Amino acid sequence: MKRYDTIDALRAALGRARQTGRTIGLVPTMGFLHAGHLELVRRARADNDVTVVSIFVNPTQFGPSEDFSTYPRDMERDLALLAEAGVDAVFTPAVEAMYPQPLQTTISLKPLGDILIGTVRPGHFSGVATVVAKLFNVAQPTRAYFGEKDFQQLTVIRRMVDDLNFPVEIVGVPTVREEDGLAMSSRNVRLSPDDRKAAQVLSRALSEGAATIAAGEGDAAGVLAAMTARIVAEKGVTLRSLDIVDARDLGTVDRIDRPVVLLVTAEVGPVLLIDQREARPA
Ligand code: PAF
């Protein structure tokens, strides 16, 4: 496994691979890797000749009062995990390498980036879309891999790729969960044992909501009310947003007569957690 810190060095290495007709799978991450990331890597390796993982905690997708400085980091451990997983190249740029000058160009999706989690984290999806566009331009991958847990992020990236004609195939990979159902996240490490237990309510409420829909409940407001009651009853959990939206474009759904996705954002202790579950009407 080779490690690259500069855009030029990564470009040169991947350019050689591309010239010899090899396909490139890119897995963008912010590090502190867990089983969910390793599943993205597994998929990328299965589909492509060369797998490259980027590790970059992107400052522009964090709000001023968010957890950029405390976001968990462990480069040595990440590199060991990726080498063991059979990754070919790791891109680990410093902030100055990705942003050598203040950006005058950014990508924002309206309304897709401003709704749902975008209301809780203003500017977040613009930061994500812009850094992912930069990574696509640097690596020029054949395919790029993103977790379905960040469902709105995946939808934003798919739409950006469509709108701006990036020649890359976006692959969404199902959420990997802990044994108790909690969605894998780098932030889970910051949960105290009590918070960790309380956080289980999120995946449980999502499963119950999806089961109710599969059993024939078609009224989104009714499903949301039952899920809300379940979540707010849990001590230590502050519900920030809960939505049932169209699975294709995240549009509002009143009557559940098509595939939908249930999305939740909640603060558990000091940590903002998100989770998601797709559901189909009976
Ligand atoms: O999902 C993440 O870890 C980040 O949002 C991403 C896609 C690597 C962009 O910084």
Automatic annotation (TrEMBL):
Belongs to the pantothenate synthetase family. The active site is at H37 (proton donor). ATP binds at residues 30-37, 147-150, 176, 184-187. GO terms for biological process: pantothenate biosynthetic process. This is Pantothenate synthetase. It catalyses: (R)-pantoate + beta-alanine + ATP = (R)-pantothenate + AMP + diphosphate + H(+). HAMAP family: PanC (MF_00158). One of its GO terms (cellular component) is cytosol. (R)-pantoate binds at Q61, Q153. Its EC number is 6.3.2.1. Gene3D superfamilies: HUPs, Pantoate-beta-alanine ligase, C-terminal domain. It holds the Pfam family Pantoate_ligase. Coiled coil: none annotated. It is found in: Cytoplasm. The gene is panC. Keywords: ATP-binding, Cytoplasm, Ligase, Nucleotide-binding, Pantothenate biosynthesis. One of its GO terms (molecular function) is pantoate-beta-alanine ligase activity. It comes from the Bacteria. PANTHER family: CYTIDYLATE KINASE/PANTOATE-BETA-ALANINE LIGASE, PANTOATE--BETA-ALANINE LIGASE. Catalyzes the condensation of pantoate with beta-alanine in an ATP-dependent reaction via a pantoyl-adenylate intermediate. InterPro entries: Cyt_trans-like, Pantoate_ligase, Pantoate_ligase_C, Rossmann-like_a/b/a_fold. The reaction proceeds by a bi uni uni bi ping pong mechanism. Homodimer.
